[in-house]
Amino acid sequence: MTRPTIVLADDHRIVAEGLKSILAGHFELLGVVADGQQMVDAARRLRPDAIVADVTMPVLNGIEALETLRRERLDIPVVFLTMHRDVEYAFRALEAGAAGYVLKHAAPEELVQAVRTALDGGTFVSPALAGELFQASRARARERDEPSVVLSLRQREILRLLAEGGSAKEIARVLDISPRTVEFHKYKLMETLGLKSTAELIQFAIKRGVV
Questions:
Q1: pTM of the prediction?
Q2: DSSP sequence for the chain
């Protein structure tokens, strides 16, 4: 019987090699790519049955890549495998149309189950995160009439990296963007949040649990 085909998108080579060994026993791996734009290109060219992708990748992050696929009506289920326990990332991924959100520290069987669920048309969220996601969803429902600040995924990535002590050059290298773009996002963050310094941005990030 023909096995389902998948594409793997992860910019960490060691992680990608480990994932290949996990997935190869269950699916036919068509290719491994290292950034969000390559993920989109591979989806267009190879038309896999599913994609397993990291959230944080250069050029386009995983969610931006998924949004591009949906705009192009490429209805390929995408399962995100990520280190981010932040429920905001999970919300954004699911709102973009993700078919799964699995934490990288989960057992390998969980990832395989997530891909199989996605192939069957379902949605899988790591049990370790599902309870938090449910509680956050209820909190959002209670607060839906209250004003709130909405940050883009790129802004949240830069805010997190700033809070972790990254310089503009270091963040630019991680996200594969220019230091000037990092500075632009930083000042837009301060403007949006009504903050006046990098120190205040870091305090905000810690208070909101972005780090």
A1: 0.65
A2: -PPPEEEEE-S-HHHHHHHHHHHTTTSEEEEEESSHHHHHHHHHHH--SEEEE-SS-SSS-HHHHHHHHHHTT----EEEEES---HHHHHHHHHHT-SEEEETTS-HHHHHHHHHHHHTT--EE-HHHHHHHHHHHHHHHHTTTS------HHHHHHHHHHHTT--HHHHHHHHTS-HHHHHHHHHHHHHHHT--SHHHHHHHHHHTT--
